[in-house]
Amino acid sequence: MKEKLTKLRREKQWTRYALAILGILLILFCLILLLAKIASYGAAQIFNYAAARQDMLRGTITVETITANIHGGVTFENLAWDDPDGNPILRVPSGSFKVNPWDILRRHLVSTTLEEVTLNKPAFAVGFDENMKVDFVKREDKDKTQKSSTEETLEDKVSNFNRNGKPLNFKLTIHNARIEASYRQRHYLMKHVNMTGTINTKGVTKISLTTGPFGGTAIGDGVELNCEVNFREKDLPSIIDFTARGVDPSSLGLGDDIHDKMTLTAKGNGPLSHPKADGDVTMDELHIPALDFSHVKGNIHYDDGQMTFRDVHARVYGGTVTASGNYNIDSRAYDIYLHGEDLDSRIPSNEPKFYCLVALDGEIHCDGDQKHLVAFGRFSSSPGFYMLIPFNSISGTFNNRWRAVDFYDVAIDTSFGIIRTDAFHIINGKLQLGTIELVDKETGKTMSLTEARDSQGPMKTIKKIQQDVKDIKEQVDGLKP
Asked: Is 147 left (phi over 0), alpha (psi -120 to 50) or beta?
């Protein structure tokens, strides 16, 4: 009996232990729920408090509503970031981020508290200085850093974010953004921007970006960019893979009314503040005054805002053109050097009775102002004919202006003399001739074509050709049934 009572007491004791453990678990569960509720209701206040006290970014950051969970996941609405003057830097209708929950609970926010960021339809404005440092990061006090700032470069400081022991390491995802960026004299506005990447200022940062139409300094259909920056090394070596599609040449200052789409692709590397790249430029068609190109393709080299073009090949007027040159992105000044072969004269002159194959060497120069554009060169041709009158060659110089090509010092070598003119124009596709002179090869006498028509000298040959053509025509007519 005594043993049964002892056993019963032990069972009741274990039951009390079990109930106590269950109660403790229920209390812990309630505390967890309470903490989650507190985190959810107080997240906005905690965020705004931390944002007001952070010392890495310029301006103020506020958020309207936040919902948080105990795992560090946070969703928010209507985030606003303004610079000290009240100008907007960032607007985000909705998004989410993940933080270290223990840092939030302890209100111990450090640069690595942030682990993931997702932004939906944000509008972002950012500027870069000469060293590619962003303008939304606080600068150190000038008095404290005057000596070091004169001695240290971007590479010496490693980066804006990785100074004073404040590295960043988080995943970034951006959906359908609108981004405005400025650098030197360049200003870009990009729509439908999508970006994924890992920001790691103590390791390797990787970014992949695509955009829809863009405008500003350049206008185009879209950009694709893949970039890696190694923050472990002093000079921040970077690898860049870049493609810009549907670029409007006129937006780059390459003509006032040239809107044929251009594609630029490039791969580069080097320090983040001074990368170099090589790639290709392609265009299906290129229409400039008096010249119509097709199948344009060539090589480009980029270095500090200067683009160099090499081995550019194109089809034009049935022949081929090769070109080289340079272009400055900031000043929009450019120089182009052309060499063409086998250009069919009938196409630009719109005159089937004027035929020869032309070779030319030309130059195009612009100081950035299209009103100061200068284009000139020399040309020569193979044997051909005009109005059934054959000639041995044609040569001269040309000057290209708006929708017109002017030819000077033109000399047409024929079997009966040399025809010269200083006024030979193609305007809006129409051939116009000025005063034409004929030089007798035997006597060296010069006369206008009107005077030569009444003379018995060199025009005998022309009249003989005309008579021969007339006789041939009569003979052909005589063969008809």
From this structure: alpha
For 8, the 3-state DSSP assignment is helix
CA separation (Å) from 436 to 87, 98, 103, 433, 448?
A: 67, 82, 90, 8, 6
> Cβ(150)–Cβ(96) under 8 Å?
no
Residue count of the chain: 481
Beta bridge partners of 222: 245
**Is residue 278 within a helix (H) or strand (E), and if so which, with residue range?**
strand 276-288
Distance CA 446, CA 45 (A): 96
Q: Give the burial string for 75-84 (b: 16+ CB within 10 Å, else e).
A: ebeebebbee
DSSP string, 221-264: SEEEEEEEEETTSTT-EEEEEEEEEEE-GGGGTS-SS----EEE
pLDDT along the chain (481 residues), means of 10: 56 52 50 50 54 63 78 82 82 87 69 85 76 51 44 47 67 92 76 93 91 88 94 87 93 80 94 90 84 91 92 94 92 91 87 88 86 85 85 86 71 80 64 68 64 47 53 53 50
